[in-house]
Amino acid sequence: MNNVKSEGKERNRFRFFRPISLFRNFEYAVQPMKTDPIGNRGGSRRSFIAGIGAVACAELTNAWVWGQSSVPALPLKNLGLEHLDILVPDTAASAQIYTRVFKTKLHQQSFQGTIRYFILLGDLPQNRQVGYIAIGVAGTRPTSIGHYCALAERYDRAGVAKELEAAGFSAGLGGGFGMLPDPDGLELQLFQPPAGLVTAAVLSPLPVDSTGLVTPMGVDHVLLHVADIEKSLPYYHLVYGANIKSTRQTNPDRLWFQLEANTRIGLQKVPSGQKPRIDHYCIKVASFDREAVAAGIRRIGLKVVPSPDEPEVLRFLDNDGITVELKPA
Fold first, then answer.
1. Among 73, 76, 244, 273, who pairs with 156 as Cys (CB 3.0-4.6 Å)?
2. Is domain 78-203 classified as CATH 3.10.180.10?
């Protein structure tokens, strides 16, 4: 009888945590064990123990490798942009709008008492390595693009923080979210593969029109409005390397950094009277009929806006006024 009680207590204790991959989505490292939309309860005591063992071994192995390596943590050997998140007042309303624009299978995750939705930028493979737009509740933060994420071949969190601080930059608050602010406070998140869609995300039961207008294929770029491009350069050269390819193209107040996977980060001087922010993001999509898609976006109730600075893209404002671009891959 004592053994039964003890095993019951132990089982209850294991219900509250879900095993995760070491680097996949550290942002969501400790996940509640929720019932999924079809009523299945994920995980088991055995899989939990196995998962924790794998994570522990991986952590020890990587700690040993990093501790023995003479390779500096920065600059990163980047693998390109992977995802971004938007912060909005009503995540369900935004998810329903985005699924009318993008042909995708909507996923969701219970997160800190809310539902976080994911617009996948491609098919979900077995290893879950796919880009996405995460839709989270703004809460006390303004409606905005919250952060963007880049992948790195090797990401030593402690080493990166140490080198940033040694150069006089902030390493953020640390912790599971791993957000690194640039000199203007714009947030970068870093992952070392395996990354991709969070393990806890499942197909969403939210009623949506999933026909979509375009087929997404990944993040193309993000444009950051910064206070001073020249003062931002030391930070970005430290993170991505002084030799990273950069171009100014036709706009002298806009600088592009070319990352891997044919992705880019743009820096532009923030307009007078405005605060630095992530101004917009662009999604690569399969080839499309520009006029037909523009008409479809208007039918949804969204505003198509001119893009003379980027004539190859179709630019529009989502239902919360966030600027989104579509670019043929």
1. 73
2. yes
Task: Summarize pLDDT for 98-147 with one digit per residue, the tens.
Answer: 999 999 999 999 988 999 999 999 999 999 999 999 999 999 999 999 99
pTM to 2 decimals?
Answer: 0.81
**What is the pLDDT at residue 137?**
97
Q: What pLDDT does residue 173 have?
A: 77
**3-state SS string for the chain:** CHHHHHHHHHHHHHCCCCCCCCCCCHHHCCCCCCECCCCCECCCHHHHHHHHHHHHHHHHHHHHHHHHCCCCCCCCCEEEEEEEEEEECCHHHHHHHHHHHECCCCEEEEECCEEEEEEECCCCCCCCCCCEEEEEECCCCCCEEEEEEEEECCCCHHHHHHHHHHCCCCCCCCCCCCEEECCCCCEEEEECCCCCCCCCCEECCCCCCCCCCECEEEEEEEEEEECCHHHHHHHHHHHHCCCCCEECCCCCCEEEEEECCCEEEEEEECCCCCCCEEEEEEEEECCCCHHHHHHHHHHHCCEEECCCCCCCCEEEECCCCCEEEEEEC
What pLDDT, on a 0 to 100 scale, did the predictor assign at position 315? 98
Quick one: pLDDT at residue 60? Answer: 45
The domain defined by 216-328 folds into 2,3-Dihydroxybiphenyl 1,2-Dioxygenase; domain 1 (3.10.180)
Residues of the chain scoring pLDDT < 50 = 4-68, 175
